[in-house]
Design goal:
- The structure is a single chain.
- The longest helix is centred in the first third of the chain and has 18 residues.
- By secondary structure, this protein is α/β, with parallel strands linked by helices.
- The protein has two domains: 287 residues, P-loop containing nucleotide triphosphate hydrolases (Rossmann fold, 3-Layer(aba) Sandwich), CATH 3.40.50; 222 residues, Nucleotidyltransferase, domain 5, CATH 3.30.420.240.
- About 2% of the residues have low confidence.
- The N and C termini lie far apart (65 Å).
Length: 536
Amino acid sequence: MSEDGIIEVPPSILAEELLVVAGSKPDFERFKQSKYILDVPKKEMLLKCGRQTSKSSTLCMSMILDARLTAGFRQGYIAPTAKTSQAFSILRFSDALLNSSAIWPHFYAPGKSNKFVIDNVGLKKFENNSVVIFLYADSDPDRIRGYTFDRIIFDEIQDIDLDEVEPVVEACIMNSAYREKLFAGTPKSLDNAIETLWQGSTQAEWAVKCEGCGKYNIFVSTKTIGKNGPICANCGKSIDTRNGIFVPAYPNKPIDGYHISRTALPLYMYDQSAWQDIVRLLDNPLWSKEKFDNEILGISSGAGLKLITEQDLIDISTYDCDPYDIKSLSLPGEKFIGIDWGGTDYSNKVENVQSQTALVVYNLIDSHLNICYYTIFQGMGPLDILHSIQHIITTIRPLSVAADAGGGKVENAELLKTCFANKTKFYPIQWGSFDKVFQWNKIDKYLADKTTIFDSFFFTILDKNLIRLPNKNTKQIIAEFLAEHAETSSSASGKKIWKRVPNKTDDLLHASVFGWVGFKMAKGDFVLYNNASLAN
């Protein structure tokens, strides 16, 4: 009971009484972890889950209860793709509202006009002025800009590029009194952002005491998988997951992190056939260890794909120059500049990693495109950085400048003037996931499919005929070239996605790729790897 005498009812009790989700009342006997998660505060939460652990139903229940019970509460649901966002809105959220008789009449009464509510795929507005907006963003945050939210729900977080999206979301909740964030997803590689969030969280595991040896078990390996049900990893005796509780490893960390393995669900205390499905998958040769770890155990496993190795980069480090020496700007050959504008990304919550403005200069000599100079601007204000770059452009008069359009709109407008004055071609470029490899948006920038462009850049390096790195002071640029890894999207497309390895910087890599694209555009060489093209 609260201080004013009002009885406070746990959200899980309200869910049992009011909601019908996925066609039935919430079953907290079989999905006990969901009950716990609904009832704890959600200032900043991470759900690291295996598949079919009631993650989506838990998110749905939490969102509906918050919308219905808190007047004027604004929530934004963000998935990596439009299809995922729409499917959650229609198959989960709307379905739960329609079938929850105690909620639905207060949201929208069928057959009656109610000007205070809105019910469509992208927007739900309750009569108490609470709003839920369904959005999507894998790497391009533009669709999220301009909204104001009290709570953000990131679903399938493993397929969202938090480097690009999360800073924009921070601005969306900045003025809220609640400022809540919930991250949810299924792990992939150890290089994935969900693992970084997990390392910065309380890391709560479902712990079950063995009645035989007295040891506590958590569900992070196959050692707790017995032929007929969960077993103690220490003595092999059967254990009852209904008796588990969440135990945090680091209770003082800022993110409340909860791991839910399929093998930890009390569901299997009631359904032996469902447990046998897990046992069969464990022995299925088509399921790799990494897939089983991700999908069933809900843990990160393996490393992301990298097309190039350190040795590949050492092999092309043959151009005789010092990239830190300003005199290298005077070396002969046509010049091409790439710029990656800086900012702060989400990972500073864990390791305070800063993304800073990087500039790379190529020169073209004897059919070799050489990185002859690069710098990362540190300890300087935005205006000073802009003036320094403008001075370099004016001094060397490059054939092209290609710059990040996602984080440097104002700066790019000034660079355009400088490039025009020096008869330099200017290409503002924004990475994203697009059907066309490279296209002008008819306003102010080129939209480039990051996967195709990065694939082509790395294969150009592997070819070892065009791009050369300097033979001095290459430690930093080699490290940053190796800071991107690829993973396969969980969406139906299964598209490969290039992402930064958490807690590493990749600004010089991005500046180098921008500069390389600018070189190809300026020289009219539109051919990319695997028959792709920059030509519109």
